[in-house]
């Protein structure tokens, strides 16, 4: 099964539709303080992790935290959907500013898995088109990730691959 080795100092960008398992993956492979999540940032600025109206402020906070952590040479994982090139541009820019190596980890669990999981989540109430659109832009953008500035691109294309992968650090 696949093995991911990330440098000690890196920006790790998780990419995946809602329900793909990004937050679960982050918790499993990284320390709590290494993870910056858009939902947690929504909670901090709006007392509600699902408040979509808080998105601009939440990402302003996320980018500020990312900037400060990379300034301090701390490996940081961005837990947000990050499915569009526009979502990723600022992240890669901040990493460049601090000479952190950018790593993309794509979690593609498939549309059915995402939808089934979200059906069981009271805080993920949206139409089926949302997942379909996220999945479509993710797949469209895959080939362009190196050109966007990602030095490592890891695409995990099934639940089994996501479950089996190991993540280690290079010193
Ligand atoms: N889940 C699961 N088995 C996995 C991964 C996730 O049962 N291998 C469940 C989680 O417990 C959660 C749901 O599926 O209830 C979604 O997983 P999560 O990691 O929260 O997905 P995210 O990609 O973070 O979704 P979102 O973008 O909506 O935050
Ligand atoms: Mg999540």
Q: How much beta, percentage-wise?
A: 15-25%
Share of residues in helices = 40-55%
Strands ordered across the widest β-sheet: 3-4-2-5-6
E-strand count: 7
Ligands (ions, cofactors included): cytidine-5'-triphosphate, magnesium ion
What's the order of the H and E elements? EEHEHHEHEHHHEHE
* Average pLDDT over all residues: 97
The backbone outline, from C-alpha atoms, is globular
- Low-confidence blocks of residues: none
Report, as a whole number of angstroms, the end-to-end distance: 22 Å
How many helices does DSSP assign?
8
Q: Give the radius of gyration.
A: 15 Å
Q: Which class best fits the helix and strand makeup?
A: alpha/beta
**Oligomer classification:** single chain
What does this structure look like?
With 171 residues, this protein is of the alpha/beta class. The protein has eight helices and seven strands, in the order ββαβααβαβαααβαβ. The strands form two sheets. The protein has a five-stranded parallel beta sheet, with helices on both faces. Strands 1-7 form a two-stranded parallel sheet. Helix 2 crosses helix 3 and helix 3 runs parallel beside helix 4. The mean pLDDT is 97. Bound molecules: cytidine-5'-triphosphate and magnesium ion (MG). The site of cytidine-5'-triphosphate has 13 residues, from helix 1.
